[in-house]
Amino acid sequence: MVPNDDKISTFQLGLIIYLTPIGVGIFTLPAVLAKDVETNGWISLILGGLFCMLIIYFISDVGKKYSNLGLVETLKFLFGKVLGTILAFPVFIYYIVFTAMEIRIFGETTKMYLLFKTPLEYIMIPILILAMILTRNGIESIARFFEAAFFLIAFTLFLVILIYLPKSDYSNLLPILRVEPLKLIKSVSDSLFSLSGFEVLFLLFPFIRRPEKALRSSLIAISFITILYVVVFIQCIARFGVDYTSTLLYPTLSLIKSSDIPGAFIEGIEGLLFSLWIVLIFTTIVMLIFAYSIVGSNLIKQKEIKHTVILFLPMIYVISLIPDSIAETFEFTDKLVIFLGYYTIIALPILMFIASKIKGARG
């Protein structure tokens, strides 16, 4: 049962859908797309964004019909208790492992650029504890934190984009559309999963005051994320060119470090923007923890998600330490996408959409 005071507005829902996907992907995606489709990465980003909108439509159509149930109970209603539980279990594993990989990548990146001599564990454990504290306070507290973070981040990103616009060589974006169709399709998959996190919408319907308005706010949020990613990709290519961008581990961070502020009124802008990135990835981690706690509490029939949040934190910490290096962490994340990401983000929403239509047709 969801308390009456633990509800969010459609505006807060849009902020959650907007801020949850923006984490590690905004740093690494330009290099991935430069390798796959060279200058045509912005096309795959737009196509990936459109595909996300289609999935959001499927999720919203099912979610608003069963807004009082939530994901796990909806699966049980559509497919029966046994099969519904089986279908929900991979989603729980997906969010557990996804959280662990985000924590590890956060720790490795922070150690690489900010806290060089700090042990990895001392970077990862504090953010896990902070995310746990915020998650235990409920979705309304999470949404209020997202509201506070959004305007600061949006203003800063706007200023950064203005700084780079006149200093870029946009002829580096040529030629256009000179790419094999199969490579473009593969890059659309990369673009889609760089936006992963929007699927938490399925878990939020019991907490939305007006579920019928969820589709509109979610589509607007995905549109803004897609535009942001397109701008970041274009700026990286225009600044560095395709060949150099494809060799960088974090092209976006390299773009920030190459900045030259007029009048030099800010020294070390990369430190400031990296701090803002920490806030961004914190929002991602918070929502992933909230997601696994919701699914996990429903699976083990625990009414209070506060207990579920703490219960699985040790597991997340242990999983995050499995890869030996940052390269293995990214490889582990790719495998997660292949085995669980396609199921959670694509297959399950489509399957539930079809099942809800069939069940509705049968009365």
Explained architecture:
The chain has 363 residues and is mainly α. 75% of the residues lie in helices and 0% in strands. The mean pLDDT is 85. One of its GO terms (biological process) is spore germination.
- In the CATH scheme, the class would be Mainly Alpha
Major beta sheet, specifics? none
Classify the fold: give the CATH topology.
Amino acid/polyamine transporter I
Under CATH, the homologous superfamily reads Amino acid/polyamine transporter I
Number of strands: 0
Mean pLDDT: 85
From the helix content, strand content and strand pairing, which structural class follows? mainly alpha
Number of domains: 1
Quickly list its features.
globular; mainly alpha; single chain; 363 residues; 75% helix
Please outline what is shown here:
This protein has helices at residues 10-19, 25-37, 41-65, 71-79, 81-113, 120-136, 139-164, 181-194, 201-204, 214-240, 242-247, 251-257, 269-299, 305-311, 313-320, 326-361. With 363 residues, the protein is mainly α.
